[in-house]
Amino acid sequence: MGVIEQTNIRLIASCPSDFNEDGVVDVNDLLLLIAAWGSCDAYPEDLNGDGVVDVSDLLMLIAAWGACE
């Protein structure tokens, strides 16, 4: 007699815009992004990795606004 096994794997979505890691992208993360504004060297607030925290990163944060999944 055969046995069928099932393994369920839940992948936790990465939420790079949640800088304070509280599970929500909100005004607190926005304030951290603003504090890091300008040229940077591998800051987590540099969401697009271009070496500058700027409006592009701000737009990415806004797009991720709300609870992290």
Describe this structure in words.
A two-stranded antiparallel ribbon has the order 1-4. It has helices at residues 27-35, 55-63; strands at residues 24-25, 38-39, 52-53, 66-67. With 69 residues, it is α+β, with helices and mostly antiparallel strands. Helix 1 (27-35) runs antiparallel to helix 2. Helix content is 26%, strand content 12%. The longest helix is centred in the middle third of the chain and has 9 residues, at 27-35. It has a domain at 24-64: Dockerin domain (Type 1 dockerin domain, Orthogonal Bundle), CATH 1.10.1330.
For the secondary structure, the number of strands is 4
So what's the CATH class of the domain at 24-64?
Answer: Mainly Alpha
Query: Could you say which structural class the secondary elements and strand pairing correspond to?
Result: alpha+beta
CATH homologous superfamily grouping of the domain at 24-64: Dockerin domain
| Low-confidence runs of at least 5 consecutive residues | none
- Major β-sheet annotation: 2 strands, antiparallel
Radius of gyration from the CA trace? 17 Å
Brief write-up:
Helix content is 26%, strand content 12%.
Structural topology:
Blueprint: E1 24-25, H1 27-35, E2 38-39, E3 52-53, H2 55-63, E4 66-67
Antiparallel strand pairs: 1-4, 2-3
